Amino acid sequence: MLSEGGSFMKGMVMGGLFCLVLSLLSSFSPGTESRTEEHHHHHVKAPSKEDLTSLSESQVQELNNQVQVYCVIMVQPKNLIYWATTADTWSKHCDKPVFYTSEASKALEAVDLNEKDDWARLRKALKHAYENAGDLQWFFVAQPTTFAIIENLKYLVLTKNPSEPFYLGNAMKSGELEYVAYDSGIVLSYEALKRLVEVFKDEDKCPERGRALWKLSEDKQLAVCLKYTGVFAENGEDAHGKGLFNSKTVDTLIKDSMGDNPADVLDGCCSDMAVTFSGMSPNQMQVMMFGVYRLRPYGHDFHDSLAFYPPEGSDND
Amino acid sequence: MRVRETKSNLIFATGLMVGFLSIRFMLDAKAFTAQVTYLMRAVKNEERKDSGESNSSLVAHRSRILCWIMTGPKNLESRARHIRNTWAKRCDKMLYMSSEKTGFPTVGLNVSEGRDNLYWKTIRAFQYIYQNYLDEAEWFLKADDDTFMVVENLRYTLSRYDPEEPVYMGRRFTPFISQGYMSGGAGYVLSKEALRRFIKGFDTGECTHISSIEDMAMGKCMETMKVEPADSRDMKGRQTFHPYSPDYYLVRQPPGPLPWYMLYEYYTPFLGPNCCSDFSVSFHYIYGDQLYVLEYLTYHLRAYGYKYRFSPHKSIELNTTSVRAARGDAKLPRT
Fold it and tell me: What are the residue boundaries of the Fringe-like glycosyltransferase domain, all occurrences included (chain B) (predicted)?
């Protein structure tokens, strides 16, 4: 009896040791994911279904409530129709939509920055947003010619820590400089904006009016300033690697796909969780509200892990 | 001696497994609880599914829909092909009606192409369907090769009607026919009984080729054969079948006279967000890339986690009387 017991104990100890050795070995392999995300990747992926189901329901609930977006919308009176359309459509889904204008308009309300220079104006707007952020930890910078789906933006950054610097969107390259395209929207975490506002004080690294010789567009200028603070542009993608920030319209993307993938137009096109499109007409933006927030086939249920509610006092979503 | 050894080895092996598995469990405690949480959530979701927009209990016996589109040799590659790639597969049976039989596949109707022959094509198409496919469906949809259909929403809209009753449904227009007629471009549906009466009408001569304006002529035959037009609007009085593209209706308009394309409306017309049901059934003048755009917007692009503003509660039975009152019909029907 004793010898049998002893045999069993020996077996157990051997089995346990074997398992420990195996798991130690596997944690050394390069394929394992580490808990602390290495932050110099060039893309940021939306969470997959598995990522969310591995969290507890209360954790998901907390993330759902915490992820709040301050929208910095850069308008001008010459673009009044787009300004009005944005105010009537997607901006209603921002937790705090704030319009920043180059000069006041009698028709619509905005923070009047009284500034004609595009880069100087963007700086002022970002500084104002930082100072008025309150509890909001994510910032979305857009023009009224962009159409955005804020819920999908929230989904993208859901598990990201805003105390880490994030600068996301449609990442492009100009020579050595990687930057996020302006027209498809720019996402900044609280930490990224904090560092940016700090480097604004440095006239050498981040001049307010740009050098006289040539002028960089505001989005490239932004990338240069952020780079000095150690913040780099990253491409926002869904769990399958499809870009979420589009500098084109839905129509153009579909037409491109019809040419490239005639057998599978939709699979080869845009993400189901797309965050932005750019260049759509005001009428198309009104149709998008219907297409995104209302039109659907009866009987398809999604059982999403998050819940976002329709904004008060709105009738087109 | 040997038996004892084997027994001892067996016990050793068992010990090995137990040791291995218990360490494994301890290391994977997190994954283990995640699995449990996932399973529990899956169970909860299964229970919640019944309170969602599942259509299984709304339609006791699933009605089959046969769809046919009016097309022609010139439009197979440019139009019919994209319909085949998008909504065609959601019909229980799909037929492409043309003047010629081809391997697309199209049905050859022995009617020449051209605007003047549209009603002849419709008559021959329905006769062909009656002869060959009557038993394969309960509902018969006619659409154009530039119509986008959301078949699930068609099913939902039809679910409150009985296909053995004479039902004729679509976007109701008002002039020329006193009980109104259904727009051809937006697509219209005949119940099995309505189809029987249409065929009978032509057999007996009660219905004839009165005009080449296909949708109006169909409306006349329906009126003659005592098939009543059905109301296709949703519970909030919003239209489901649309003879034009979404931008014609959804864009907010300043107060003023109605645009020309709204002058035929049988019911009170609305422009702006109230024009159109969340569960819209069709849009028309949708060519090529626009079919895929609508397919993308309907079936793919969405706002993650969004709780829809309008969600028909399953437990509310579609009481036709209260529905009509909500839609502001002048008279309540005699039940």
Answer: 65-234
Q: Answer whether B310 sits within 8 Å of A301, measured CB to CB.
A: no
Percent pLDDT > 90 in chain B is 73
The structural domains of chain B, ordered by start, are 65-300 (3.90.550)
pLDDT per position as a tens digit, B243-285 = 999 999 999 999 999 999 999 999 999 999 999 999 999 999 9
Cβ atoms of residues B233 and B277 within 8 Å: yes
CB contacts < 8 A, A to B, total 217
Query: Is residue A121 within 8 Å of A100, Cβ to Cβ?
Result: yes
CA–CA distance, A94 with A74 (Å, rounded to integer): 14
Closest by Cβ to A151, choosing from B21, B288, B305 = B305
Question: Which residues of chain A carry a pLDDT beneath 50?
Answer: 29-39
Nearest residue of chain A to residue B296 (CA atoms): A266
Q: Do B13 and A11 touch (CB under 8 A)?
A: yes
Q: Which of A11-20, A106-115, B289-298, B299-308 has the lowest mean pLDDT?
A: A11-20
ipTM value for the complex: 0.86
A251: domain range? 7-25+43-294
* CB of A182 closer than 8 Å to CB of A144: no
In a domain? residue A290:
yes
Closest CA of chain A from B290, distance in Å: 7
- Mutation pick from A287, A295, A301, A314 vs chain B, by most beta carbons of B within 10 Å, is A295
Verdict on whether the full-model pTM lies above 0.90: no
| pLDDT tens track for A189-221 | 999 999 999 999 999 999 988 665 567 899 999
Task: Give the nearest chain B residue to A53 (CA atoms).
Answer: B38
Number of domains in chain A: 1
DSSP B162-190: -TTS-EEESSEE-SSSTT-EE-STT-EEE
Average pLDDT of chain A is 91
DSSP state for residue B268 in the 8-state scheme: P
Residue in B295, B296, B303 nearest the CB of A308: B303
A residues 152-191 lying closer than 8 A (beta carbon) to B: 152, 154-155
Residues in B touching A12 (Cβ below 8 Å): 15-16, 18-19, 22
Listing DSSP states for A14-79 in one string gives HHHHHHHHHHHHHHHSTTSPPSS--TT-SEEEPPPHHHHHTS-HHHHHHHHHH--EEEEEEE-GGG
Q: Is A56 in the B-facing interface, judged by CB distances under 8 Å?
A: yes
